[in-house]
Amino acid sequence: MPEFDFRSPRLYVDAPLRTGERIELDRNQSNYLGNVLRLAAGDTVLAFNGRDGEWRAEIGGRKRADTLDVTTQTRAQDHLPDIACVFAPLKHARLDYMVQKAVEMGASRLQPVLTRFTQVSRVNGERMRANVIEAAEQCGIISLAEVADPVPLDRFLDGRDPARLLVFCDEAADVAGPVQALQAAGRANAGIDVLIGPEGGFAEEERALLTRQPSVLRLALGPRILRADTAAVAALALVQAVLGDWRGNA
Q1: Alpha-carbon Rg of the chain, whole angstroms?
Q2: How far apart are CA 90 and CA 77, in angstroms?
Q3: Are 50 and 80 in contact (CB under 8 A)?
């Protein structure tokens, strides 16, 4: 792993980053730096925007942190592996957890899909994006995962690139070695969609539709039934280890 600075606070900013740039902080950012982290003028943070890499910036202001003065780049912009976490939405706390862990695992896209047994039909996209940013700030990530609007499962399948590998995590699949199954599938040049179903599982017609998809790998995640948020972490870890950027030669 490259050497990262994990001691300095990190802040996402939606502004260009380059030497000499001055960034005006909003009220929430100012409160976070001044009242939560207890930082003052002259202290430094690491700033990123998902486009220009990571930069060291000095806090400016009198009574509170009002600005950031960008000084030097600490890391060039990187790119996440083309892995989408496709999932049936969950209730608030567990959805927050799933989003945060998918970001930590290196997913580049978060795609909610609505299935027959989906527990939640409305998704707060702003809350999901806030969780993406928070996870990136805390874990040294400088590329932000895209948050997509929820769509019905059949519409997602109709619109996806058939050259992408669809890893269909199905508790009804025969239990076999998932690592060996992923190795046999091989790396997908067009990217990977990792699909996690709802707590109630997939309906039979959904399962039939999924198994008819091109480039599909139906995968069991071991001999125990996992909760959906746990299944997402397990599936992304497997995919990253076998086909993603956890590989030494990725």
Answers
A1: 20
A2: 32
A3: no
Nearest to 83 by CA among 220, 188, 230, 217: 188
Closest C-alpha to 106, from 67, 80, 128, 85: 80
CA–CA dist 194, 166 (Å, integer): 6
Q: Which two tokens stand for residue 23?
A: 């960034």
176, two tokens = 């076999």
pLDDT (tens digit per residue) in 51-65: 999 999 999 988 789
Structure tokens at 85: 């976490």
Residue 88 CB coordination number (10 Å): 24
pLDDT band at 44 (very low <50, low <70, confident <90, very high): very high
42 CB neighbour count, 10 Å cutoff? 9
Give the number of residues written for the chain.
250
